Amino acid sequence: MPAELRLIPCLADNYAVLLRDPVTEATAVVDVPEVAPVLAALEREDWTLTHILVTHHHTDHIAGVEALKERFGATVIGPKAEQDTIPGLDFAVVDGDPVAVGGLVGRVLETPGHTKGHIVFLFEGERLLFSGDTLFVMGCGRPFECAPPVLWESLARLRTLPDDISVYCGHEYTLANARFARSVDPDNAAVAARLEEIEALRAAGQPTLPTTIGAEKATNPFMRADDPELAARIGLAGAEPGAVFTELRALKNNFRG
Ligand SMILES: [Zn+2]
Question: Is the pTM of this model over 0.90?
């Protein structure tokens, strides 16, 4: 039986996601920006939380971890590199470690950049990736704790995953990301078409998640820092991908689209 998923809007623009194995009834939440909406979703479905998966230590991803752990006795799994800043961690994991939610077995990929210890959770059998603040729909996190090229390497790694992997990320930043993508990639028909779709979804109050690795490869400028045409478009013809990525990040930070 396929995994069950519930996307839960939290705070202003965060998402938590429930991942449930219908066979064993094991249920995980990926990141906990706040308790109430996650609890409400669990109660609505009559699901019992068994696991809490944490992508990184930022408050808007861990604020509700301890309260949910206490309430359900759930097992908390998060990055070993950030174990000192994530309260309640039961299992500190590193790259390649398996993560089981009942019969759903995923693994950890380390994707440093946004934070030094950021991890993502790949459930290859379910064709699912939980990307936290590393990869957003048509964008990426800000490299707060690492040099931008470190984040580029992490995104380049995610780009090697199969195109049909669905991606759930930590924020609804898609509309601003899509407008930025169009500004640096105005001749890309896939970007233009996707911007229209996203405008319609947001106008209807709908989330833009999930995306797919394939869609990101086609429309996310931060996944294409080694594309010579994109480099030329931002005045960096022939530059290293790390330098192109750094400039894209700087342009995005200053973008007021
Ligand atoms: Zn963050």
Answer: yes
